[in-house]
Design brief:
The chain has 10 helices and 10 strands. The protein is an alpha/beta fold. The protein has a single domain, classed as P-loop containing nucleotide triphosphate hydrolases (Rossmann fold, 3-Layer(aba) Sandwich). Strands 6-7-8-3-9-10 form a 6-stranded mixed sheet, sandwiched between helices. The protein has a 4-stranded antiparallel sheet with strand order 2-1-4-5, covered by helices on one side. A hairpin with a 2-residue loop joins strand 9 and strand 10. The N and C termini lie far apart (44 Å). It holds the Pfam family oligo_HPY. Keywords: ATP-binding, Nucleotide-binding, Transport. InterPro entries: AAA+_ATPase, ABC_transp_ATP-bind, ABC_transporter-like_ATP-bd, ABC_transporter-like_CS, Oligopep_ABC_C, P-loop_NTPase, PhnK.
């Protein structure tokens, strides 16, 4: 059996005296999609930011491929960030409006020293756009020229530029129209299979997480209430908080919905 790609152990984080993460621990296997769900304020995004070391936890341990993320110095952290990239919630603020798409996609290649030749960087940028079902003709346009869904595709392409092993998606579809959400979800499913990506997918929409993820981790007030396969969590939730979340959300799978209803207490 392979070793976990990501190990998170006992993460603790407080802001202004209020504990927002309380002993959070989980593993992710190579090629796995793990959904992190919960209500607003449950600690999902803080967990993601601590894993990527965009926020420093008070204590705990994060290992990526056996390497200690939290103890890494500047040089090693840059190397680790090649292996894990983030896609943020708001595609309107995550892309520099003064940069063309080509500049946005070429910048990671230059920063990490992956492609010193300018012509080849542009070719790589064009290939990245094709990976997210966009065209090379978009390279010289600015982010303002694109819809929210297109901007999020560009953000995903930028994250993929350095060929990461782990993609951390922090509610990447919550600001998009419903029809566009489905397109981005299908893109992530396809990329996971084609590139053997591991994806940590943060969301509050339980139906979305069921569609995309292999396993589900449910967060409540900074703690992991429950973690299991999507069939376990949706079909036979153990924690009362998980059951309360699921009670209000229809599951887009008739068999899972029947299993959930059969497991509910009868009064």
């Amino acid at each position: 059996m392979s070793e976990p790609l990501l190990r998170v152990r006992n993460l603790v984080k407080s802001f202004e005296g209020r504990r927002v993460l309380d002993d959070v621990s989980f593993d992710m296997m190579p090629g796995e999609v793990l959904g992190l769900v919960g209500e607003s304020g449950s600690g999902k995004s803080t967990t993601a930011r601590c894993v990527a070391r965009l926020t420093e936890p008070d204590s705990g341990r994060v290992e990526l491929g056996g390497r200690d993320v939290l103890a890494a110095g500047r040089g090693e952290l840059r190397s680790l960030r090649r292996e894990m990239q983030m896609v943020f919630q708001d595609p309107y603020s995550s892309l520099n409006p003064r940069m063309t798409v080509a500049q946005l996609l070429e910048e990671p290649l230059a920063v990490h020293g992956l492609e010193p030749d300018r012509r080849r960087r542009r070719e790589r940028a064009a290939a990245l756009l094709e990976t997210v079902s966009m065209s090379a003709e978009h390279l010289d346009r600015y982010p303002r020229s694109f819809s929210g869904g297109q901007r999020q595709r560009i953000a995903i392409a930028r994250a993929l530029a350095v060929e990461p092993r782990l993609l951390i998606c922090d509610e990447p579809i919550s600001s998009l129209d419903v029809s566009v959400q489905a397109q981005v979800l299908n893109l992530l499913r396809d990329l996971r299979l084609r590139l053997n990506l591991s994806i940590l997918f943060i969301a509050h929409d339980l139906a979305v997480v069921y569609y995309l993820c292999d396993r589900i981790a449910v967060m409540e007030q900074g703690r992991l209430a429950e973690i299991g396969t999507r069939e376990q969590v949706y079909g036979a939730p153990e924690h009362p908080y998980t059951r309360s979340l699921l009670a209000a959300v229809p599951i887009p799978d008739p068999a899972a919905e029947r299993a959930r209803r059969a497991a509910e207490p009868q009064y």
